Amino acid sequence: MSNDNKQTVPSGPWGYPLLGHLPDFLRDRLGFLSRCAAQYGDVVKLKIGEPTFLLNNPEDIKHVLVTNPENYDKGPRLTSARGKRLSGEGLLTSLGAAHLRQRRMMQPAFYRTPIQAFAETITNGAETRMAVWKPGTELNITAEMMALAQHNIIRTVLGDDFDDRSGEFATALTTRKKYVEHVYFSLLPFPEYLPPKLRREYQQARKRIDDTINREIHKRRDLTGPRHDMLSLFMKAEYDDGTGMTDRQIRDEMLTLFSAGYETIGDGLGWTWYLISQHPEVETRLLAELREVLGGRVPCADDLPKLRYTGMILAESMRLYPPTWIFIRIARQDETLPSGATIPAGAKLYLCQYVMHRNPRYWPNPERFDPERFSESAKKERHKLAYFPFGGGVRVCIGESFAKMEGVLVLAAIAQRFAFTLVPGQTIVPKPQMTLRPKNGIWMRIDQR
Ligand code: HEM
Fold first, then answer.
1. pTM summary value
2. What's the rounded Cα separation, in Å, for the pair 119 and 272?
3. Closest CA to ligand 1's atom 2
4. Which of 42, 85, 87, 89 is nearest to 61 (CA)?
5. Is 325:268 a contact under the CB 8 Å cutoff?
6. pLDDT at residue 224 in the model
7. Does the domain made of 4-441 have the CATH classification 3.10.129.10?
8. 151 contacts 129 by C-beta, under 8 angstroms
9. Best mutation site among 267, 269, 397 for ligand 1, i.e. most ligand atoms within 8 A of its Cβ?
10. Which residues does the chain have with pLDDT short of 70?
11. Nearest-CA residue for atom 20 of ligand 1
12. Using CA positions, which residue lies closest to atom 21 of ligand 1?
């Protein structure tokens, strides 16, 4: 919807002649964007590489993601040839009609019934992890949650019987993740090639990942009888014309799930334990809910609708520390947004959850951790796009239900058995990379309940 009556020219801070705002942004991404939003309002004009606009009005965000997504492409980081090389030619990296076709074919694998059938995989993962925790010791809860989320996505995609006792497949996924992050965030020239050691390690890791997926595809072709894992679901999935994916496409979509499906929820869970540890009143209410609903037993999919407060804690944690803290769109044509700002063709739009989720117009006392913000009545009163940890519209996260289920089950399974206390003397600082993670991890002392 364009609104010719109230066209406005967005303004922004002073920038360096050639470099624009790049130095300020690189110095302190979160602080710089937050200050810009506080000072310049709905739409802030910046120059970070290309002309860039930071959107802080939920109506504008809705317009870009939901109302007219055809005019806004994903940024080149994922959709370029390099993005496809690193993350596969799949859902994450495709555009336009190709994306819609792929999304329609994959969507049924993410419906409620198939997703909830993975609940036991997730709680088994949590039980296995807890079995090696020693009460009275200290651990980095962010690293623990990352390892758990990685374990869970491997079992969800390749099956509970997938044998990775040596940990080589998990290590290969971690090496790949580190390399991709290096390529996107390094200030070195030619980061895909430098340093050569990192590239070699990545190539070996990528070969292991590709070989393993190919082997698992062939194994399933010879199997008879039902199986429940993402790979089997994808091998049966069909396009509208009744054809299925080639082995290469299946492999790339598995890579998509390994790229998008664990770091985000791992970071989200790490932040959630930190916030719970700082808010005893929230912890008391959480434990009361778990006592009432579970009474000490392992949670299952049927418990999810009853674990409402647990879900509200997770939602509020992802408000303050959204694992995807920013994403980008590029305008195809000039357009005037609902707020009145005109966006020229080719401009880059920043949709920044970290900033929007702390906008005081929609979030009174924004720094306060308060799960009540996600009660049904509070949600109804707020603009839907004032909160978008999973994006929105046609490209909304396909794993949203899976991630929410995993988050609630893991919190419920672990909180009943262990208490976490923040080890004193740490300064917890968010570091915005591919996901938002604590700079030095979060060290907690663990005690049995
Ligand atoms: C807390 C956990 C998660 C968060 C915060 C998150 C966030 C997001 C966001 C913001 C997007 C949209 C990006 C854009 O529009 O440019 C997205 C897309 C996507 N996510 Fe997630 N995600 C999470 C978990 C997962 C999981 C568990 C999976 C897979 C099992 C997954 C798979 C994907 C895929 C495949 C896409 C691309 C969808 C498309 O373009 O059609 N995500 N995610």
1. 0.96
2. 20
3. 265
4. 42
5. no
6. 77
7. no
8. yes
9. 397
10. 1-5
11. 397
12. 397
